[in-house]
Specification:
Length: about 375
Amino acid sequence: MTIAADSVSTAVRSGPTGPAPFSEALHHFATALRYEAHLRPEDVDPVWRSILRSQEVLADTAELLGSRPDIARLDLGRPVFVIGFLRTGSTLLHNLLGRHEALHSPLLWELAHHTDAVRSPDRHDELRDRAQGYVDDYYRKAPELPAVHFIDAGRPDECHRLLANTFHSMVLEMRYRVPSYGDWLHRQDLAEPYRRHREQLQVLMSLHRDADGGQPVPVLKCPFHTWFLDSLVQAYPEARFIHLHRDPVEVVGSTASLCRVLRGARSDHRELTEIGAQWFTRITGLSRRLAESRDDLIGGRPVLDLPYRQLVGDPQEAMRRICAFLEIPYSERFRAAVSDHLSAAPAHAHGKHVYTLGDFGLSADAVTRATESYRKRFGV
C-alpha cells in the first residue's frame, strides 16, 4: 500500500495564497514515504494524518503570533540546548533539569498540542490524555520501545516535534525508511525551519508565564540538532549548550537498535545491515566535523562538555556542575527533586535494551577507527 499521488500533490499545493510552507520538504518526504518506506497498509492513514497535523500546527502558530503580539514578543531568556549523539544520556539529563525551579523542559503533550493549549486553557487535561493515547498506541505497535526509549505524555520530550512540523528533521529518517529524503535533508540550510522552531517554542513557553510576565528558561533536548548547529545558532544566538559525550561504539549500536524498533511501529521491512550502514555513516561523519570545528559550529557560544559516564555515575555532581555553568542555584529543593526522579525511574525499569553491533553488520574496530579524531578531541 502506498500513499496516493493525488494526496501528495494536494498537500504540497494547499494554501490560500500559493504553495504551503515547506512544500519542497513535504514533497521529498511524502515521495520517499510513497516509494521507499514500505508502510503497512493500516499505517498509511495515521502517517498521512500526522503530516496534515504538522501543516495545521504551522498555520495555527502563524495565526497566534499575528493575533497575540504578547506571544510574538516573548523573551525566551538564554535557552539551554542539550546536544550530542543519540543514546548519550540526554533523556535522563533533560528530565533532571526539568525539575529545577528556574528551568522548564517542555513536556510531550505540550510539544504535541502547544497551539491548542494556548487557545483552550480548559482543555489541558484532554490534550494530555490525547497525547498519552498516541504514546500507548506507539507502544502497542513497538512493544520493545519502553525498554529502549521510554516516553510519557507528562514527561519532558525532544523538540524534534517542533522541527518535524516543517518536514526538516532527522527524526523522519529515524522513524521511516526514506533514504532519498535523508540525502536531500542533509544538503539543506535549516535556518528557516529553525526560525519556525523558535516561533513554536514561544507559543509553548507562553503557557508558563507567571503573574509578573516572566517564565522559566527553556531546556531543549534533541540529538538531531547536533547535525545542524550552525542553523540552530542563527535562530537562537543567545543559546547555551550542554554537550554529552559517549563511546561511539556504544552510540552507533544503540542508535541502530532504536531505529530498528521505531521503524517496526509502521513497517515490517527492516533491513538491519542497511540501518547499520546509515547510522554508521551519519555518526562517524558528524564525529569528524565535531572534532574539527565544534566550537565554530556553535559560534563560540557557552558550552559545557559532559561525559556520559559522569552523568550516570554521579548525577548529583553532574547537576552541581551544570547549575554552576548555567549560573542558577544548586538548591536543596533541586537536589531532593533529582533524588526523587532517580528513585522513581531507575535504570532498566522498563526492561533491558539488548543489541550487538554484529546484528547490523558492524564491528567495534570499524567504529573506533572512524571516530578516532572525536575520541581524541573530547577525551572519550
